[in-house]
UniProtKB/TrEMBL annotation:
<keyword id="KW-0489">Methyltransferase</keyword>
<dbReference type="GO" id="GO:0008168">
    <property type="term" value="F:methyltransferase activity"/>
</dbReference>
<dbReference type="InterPro" id="IPR029063">
    <property type="entry name" value="SAM-dependent_MTases_sf"/>
</dbReference>
<keyword id="KW-0808">Transferase</keyword>
<dbReference type="GO" id="GO:0032259">
    <property type="term" value="P:methylation"/>
</dbReference>
<protein>
    <submittedName>
        <fullName>Phospholipid N-methyltransferase</fullName>
    </submittedName>
</protein>
Amino acid sequence: MSTLTYLKSFFKDKDVASVTPTSKFCIRRVCRPIDLSRDQTIVEYGAGAGVFADYLLPRMTPGSRLILFETNELLFEKLREIDDPRVSLFDQSVEFVTDLLGDELIGRTDFIISGIPFSFLDEQSKASVLQQSVDLLKEGGKFLAYQTSGHLKEPLRNAFGNLKTSWEWRNIPPMTIYEAEKR
């Protein structure tokens, strides 16, 4: 998807946090902890136009699942073009992720990838989304996020009790990469 489409979404929708798609460098760094040779259930918050899906799907096993959340209408329409039975789409907010996904995935999700702008959420909503994420993940499952600043460190430590961070400078804007594990 073009940068122009992202720009349109950015100016039309207050919840779109970037004017460009995530770079291949950032995508690879975020996905580094995922063993794509095994069946995985991956949930993505803020899937945008599907750049992570484009990276993951050719590498995922036939028994894997990719569940994408995106509330921006223009970006969601782009996601609807993905023709893969392993993909499920939701155009609802992740503020209700456990209700939307139900008991089938609670405690059974391997990875959550998140690009949603947590800085746009109030503290209660942020804590709720992170707690629901902990609930969704299985033991050893990981929450992988990329954000434009270090503002998510404390909330992730509070929710998960652990955290690793790194930087990806080869993205516009540069991103803080977060990795928290359910233990």
